Amino acid sequence: MVVTRIDKSQLKVGMFVEALEGAWQDNPKLGRRFTVRSGQEIDIILNSNISAVFINTALGRDISSSYHPSGCRNITTATKQDKFETARKIHGHAAEARSLIEDVCLGRTITMEAFTPLVSDVARTMEENPSLYIGMSRLRFRDSATFVHSLAVAALLLHFGRSMHMDDETIEHLCMAGILHDIGKLTIPKQVLQKQGPLNAAERKLIEQHPERGYELLSSHLSMPKLVLDICRSHHERLDGKGYPDRLGAEQISVEVRMSTICDVFDALTSTRPYKKGWSSQQALSWMMCREDQFDKTLLWQFILSLDPEMTKGIL
Ligand SMILES: [Fe+2]
C-alpha cells in the first residue's frame, strides 16, 4: 500500500482517502475511507478542521498522475493494433453469449457455473485490453446486435464493479446480468426490433415490454441470482420516475441497477448501427451528464473515472 500525506488543498477528484489528520468526524456521505468523486466532496474537507490528508495511490489518483482503479488500465489508450488483435476474441465471446442466452430462452437448465467461463474470458480480456468493449461497436452485425450489446454491457459492468471495489460474487452477477439483461428482446418480432426509422406507438409499447418479458423468462430458472432478475426488469427505470416498466422512484432503484442503466445507455450511444453513427465516449458521457435526474450523477462520475479520468476535463 502506498500512502502519501498531502495538504488538503492538493486533494483532487479520483484520489483515494485512507485517513484524515486533524479534527474530523466521519462524514455519513463520505464514510471512513473513500474515493473523492466530486468538487462538493473536496469542499466538505476544505471547509473542515482537518489539516492534511493521507491518500492511497494504489487505489486512486496520485498528486501528479491520473487515476487508475486497481486492476484496470486506462480504457482509452488502446491502439488500432490492440483492437484488431482482440477483435477475434469478441466474436468468440459473442458466440458464447449467444449460445447461453439461447439456452436460457429455450428453458434449458442453466446455472451460474455455465456463465463462469465466459465471465472469466471477459474479465481476462478486460485486463489485457479494457478499451476493447468500446471499440467493438464497429464490429457489429445486424442480426447479432443484441448479443454484442449484451456482451459490451457485461464487460462495462465488470469494469465498473471492479472500479467500485465490489466483491467477486457481485461482480460475477453484474457480468451475468449484462449478458442477460435484454433477453426479453428475443421474444419481440424482428421486424419491430430491427425497424429503421421511428417506431409508432404500438411498436414502442411492444419493445418496452422486453424488461418484463425477460424477467418472466429468467424467473423460471430457480437459481437465477436476484441481482440478475432486478437488472433485467429495471434497467430502463429512471431516477426521475419516468422509466419503465414499473415507473420506480429513485429510492426503489438499487446501486447495481443504476450502474446497469449507465452501462446500457453508454453502449447504446457509442454504438454504430445501420441507421446511425456511434458517438465518441466523451460525447456520450457529456450528454448523459446533462440529463436532469435520469442517471445517478455520483455513479456516472465514478464510471467516467473508471474509463479515463482525463475525460472529466472535457465534461466538467
Ligand atoms: Fe433493454
Gross morphology = globular
- Residue-averaged pLDDT, rounded? 79
Q: What is the rounded distance between the termini?
A: 30 Å
- The proportion of residues forming helix, as a percent range, comes to 40-55%
Strand content: 5-15%
Residue windows where pLDDT falls under 50 for at least 5 positions: 66-78, 137-143
Class based on secondary structure composition and strand pairing: alpha+beta
SSE pattern, N- to C-terminal: EEEHEHHHHHHHHHHHHH
Give the strand line-up of the largest sheet: 1-4-2-3
Q: How many beta strands in the DSSP annotation?
A: 4
Radius of gyration: 20 Å
The description of the largest β-sheet is:
4 strands, antiparallel
Bound molecules: fe (ii) ion
Number of helices: 14
In short:
The protein has 316 residues and is an alpha+beta fold. It contains 14 helices and four strands. It has helices at residues 39-46, 80-105, 112-128, 132-135, 145-163, 168-180, 190-193, 201-207, 210-219, 226-234, 255-270, 281-290, 297-307, 311-315; strands at residues 3-7, 16-23, 34-35, 49-56.
Indicate the topology.
Layout: E1 3-7, E2 16-23, E3 34-35, H1 39-46, E4 49-56, H2 80-105, H3 112-128, H4 132-135, H5 145-163, H6 168-180, H7 190-193, H8 201-207, H9 210-219, H10 226-234, H11 255-270, H12 281-290, H13 297-307, H14 311-315
Antiparallel strand pairs: 1-4, 2-3, 2-4
Helix pairs in contact: 2-3, 2-5, 3-5, 3-6, 5-6, 5-11, 6-10, 9-10, 10-11, 11-12
Bound molecules: fe (ii) ion.
The site of fe (ii) ion has 4 residues, from loops.
